[in-house]
Design a protein that fits this description.
The protein is of the alpha/beta class. The chain has 11 helices and 12 strands. The chain starts with 7 loop residues before the first helix and ends with a helix.
Length: 337
């Protein structure tokens, strides 16, 4: 049953279950809504790297910190499309593009819209993460063919000021509302291991699960400490707490894709198997996630073979299907006449 009325107490009770009970619960819910042995594969490309004006304390791209990051201007459209073709050939069905902006300027919009249109022509789902959006920008992204927009909440409302000061929690929620209103699928989750408490992880899950429509994609990132950022030396979170967060997300948002994102490269095959048992069914594949290392495609293929997992097949384009059906009906009527 899809609910939007979860309380923090209910979510905490789930989180605190004995691990085997929690995993069983999550896997049973998962099997109601998804193929248990299929995982959606995405690829993420940085289309503009570094000098971001935001002060997210975990991020290598923030202009506030010295992380020795190589700054890159907007990637050429042709290069981005070449990366998208490679991603499709390697088995990805969704191509995600991220820019280190607080928000896209109007001068950036023609470039962004062209990228979406060109990637869509390849038969890939499209996703963008560009910072905050206004209503007009969201509508134009939708009209260009954008399928998903990523804008993470990162953590609980209470802990958020400890992580970011240059935009508010409500700013993030406002962007998600613009995305929903434009008819774009929402991709929104958070990061665990920021130094937060269990109550903050519960708060993040509560915020996501009580949205009017659950995010269609929910990334659960594990912090990758970056030298030069304020969180470079934060104590590493136990993997089991990450697994618990994934399992609870699956139970309270049963129709959402739960994605393993940053931090996966440091996990063992057994850790990742537990994450899939907990209901994760989406990954970012490839050697890099924006600026941080990621598990390579070869390792993912080997892991999938070991676990008996298959990559999710591309979804049919709804618009193309409707057009083809209309053409077929027209043909039948013509033949009948």
């Amino acid at each position: 049953m899809i609910r939007h009325t979860w309380t923090r107490a209910e979510i905490e009770n789930l989180y605190d279950q004995p691990l085997m009970d929690l995993l069983l619960n999550a896997q049973q819910v998962h099997r109601e809504y998804f193929d248990a042995n299929t995982v959606q594969v995405s690829t993420l490309l940085s289309i503009k790297t570094g000098r971001c004006p935001e002060d997210c304390k975990y991020c290598s791209q923030s202009a506030h910190y010295d992380t020795n990051l190589e700054i890159e201007k907007r990637i050429e459209v042709e290069k981005a499309i070449a990366e998208a073709k490679q991603a499709k050939a390697s088995g990805s069905t969704r191509f995600c593009m991220g820019a280190a902006w607080r928000n896209p300027h109007e001068r950036d919009m023609p470039y962004v819209l062209e990228l979406i249109q060109e990637v869509k022509k390849l038969g890939l789902e499209t996703c963008m993460t560009l910072g905050m959006l206004n209503a007009s920008q969201a509508i134009r992204l939708k009209e260009a063919g954008l399928d998903y927009y990523n804008h993470n909440l990162d953590t609980s409302r209470e802990y958020y000021p400890n992580v970011i000061s240059t935009r508010s929690y409500d700013d993030r929620l406002e962007t998600l509302e613009q995305v929903r209103a434009a008819g774009i699928n929402v991709c929104s989750g958070g990061i665990v291991g920021l130094g937060e408490t269990k109550q903050d992880r519960i708060g993040l899950l509560h915020e996501l699960a009580t949205m009017p429509i659950h995010p269609q994609s929910v990334p659960i990132n594990m912090l990758v400490p970056i030298e030069g950022t304020p969180l470079a030396n934060v104590e590493k979170l136990d993997v089991i707490d990450w697994i618990r967060t994934i399992a609870v997300a699956r139970i309270i948002m049963p129709k959402s894709y739960i994605r393993l994102s940053a931090g996966r490269e440091s996990l063992s095959d057994s850790d990742q198997a537990l994450a899939f048992m907990a209901g994760a069914n989406s990954i970012f594949s490839g050697d890099k996630l924006l600026t941080t290392p990621n598990t390579g495609e070869g390792k993912d293929r080997a892991l999938f073979r070991k676990l008996g997992i298959q990559a999710e097949a591309p979804k049919p384009d709804v618009k193309a299907t409707a057009i083809n059906a209309m053409a077929a009906n027209t043909s039948v009527i013509a033949d009948g006449a």
